């Protein structure tokens, strides 16, 4: 059984993994994904493939709508073969839809929203879409001509390397860092950052990753952690106040981020700084 849903993603970045495959297609607005450490945007006409147990981050950039299909590993279906599912989800990746697939996904989304309780209809529409995508990626040669650039992680991220080039001019990282520092206490979207560089969100993401080695999300998180560490070691602010000033959604989100990046909790960092610099 395939669970199908049309939904919106929150603007606060979240992370999880699940025991089923997931296909996501953008319908309206822009969303940002980071799957197994590789980030890209998913807006109208673009999608991503998330294999089971693959850790990923996701967030919405303002108003957005996406089509989500969850495919269980142990669920058999007479409408789609295991070989097609394996071909689709053998590794994570991002893809673009050709005009026919764009039309199909918008019709399917409208029908699912019009008849939200008709699970049989939703599942048949989801299977039809996956079969159409599966037909287009039976061989590498079909990928670019039929689906558009289906970008796996062993290729370029978010661009078609055969006909796209990144600009030679370097990004103004001083300008970007200054902007982020001024807005750390707020949600910062890729759209806002792209505006600082006068680029589209998709182009900005590709250029930023190529020039810095980080995704925009990773970069902002890095600066949030730096701000939190500075406040922990130089002030007596509460963890709630520090989380708010550094732009974390909660005290627990701050603790998780610090533990993941530094191996220490906020309390341990604060205690270490006090012991390293005893008062005279």
Automatic annotation (TrEMBL):
Residues 174-272 form the HTH araC/xylS-type domain. Pfam families: HTH_18. The keyword Cell division does not apply. Keywords: DNA-binding, Transcription, Transcription regulation. One of its GO terms (molecular function) is DNA-binding transcription factor activity. InterPro entries: AraC_XylS_family_regulators, Homeodomain-like_sf, HTH-like, HTH_AraC, RmlC-like_jellyroll. Signal peptide: none annotated. Residues 261-280 are annotated as: Disordered. This is AraC family transcriptional regulator. It comes from Zooshikella ganghwensis.
């Amino acid at each position: 059984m395939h669970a199908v849903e049309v939904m919106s993603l929150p603007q606060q970045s979240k992370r999880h993994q699940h025991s089923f495959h997931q296909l996501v297609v953008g319908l309206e607005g822009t969303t940002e994904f980071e799957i197994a450490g590789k980030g890209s945007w998913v807006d109208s006409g673009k999608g991503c493939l998330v294999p089971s147990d693959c850790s990923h981050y996701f967030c919405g950039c303002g108003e957005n709508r996406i089509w989500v299909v969850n495919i269980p590993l142990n669920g058999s279906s007479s409408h789609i073969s295991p070989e097609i599912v394996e071909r689709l989800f053998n590794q994570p990746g991002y893809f673009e839809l050709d005009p026919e697939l764009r039309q199909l996904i918008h019709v399917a989304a409208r029908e699912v929203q019009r008849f939200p309780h008709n699970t049989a209809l939703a599942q048949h529409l989801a299977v039809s879409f996956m079969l159409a995508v599966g037909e287009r990626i039976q061989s590498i040669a079909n990928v670019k001509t039929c689906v558009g650039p289906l970008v796996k992680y062993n290729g370029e991220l978010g661009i078609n390397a055969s006909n796209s080039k990144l600009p030679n001019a370097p990004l103004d990282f001083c300008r970007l860092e200054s902007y982020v520092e001024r807005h750390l206490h707020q949600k910062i979207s890729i759209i806002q950052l792209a505006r600082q560089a006068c680029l589209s969100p998709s182009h900005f993401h590709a250029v930023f990753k190529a020039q810095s080695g980080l995704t925009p999300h990773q970069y902002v998180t890095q600066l949030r952690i730096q701000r939190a560490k500075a406040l922990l070691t130089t002030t007596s602010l509460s963890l709630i106040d520090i989380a708010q000033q550094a732009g974390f959604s909660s005290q627990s989100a701050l603790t998780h981020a610090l533990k993941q990046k530094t191996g220490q909790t906020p309390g341990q960092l604060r205690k270490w700084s006090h012991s390293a610099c005893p008062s005279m």
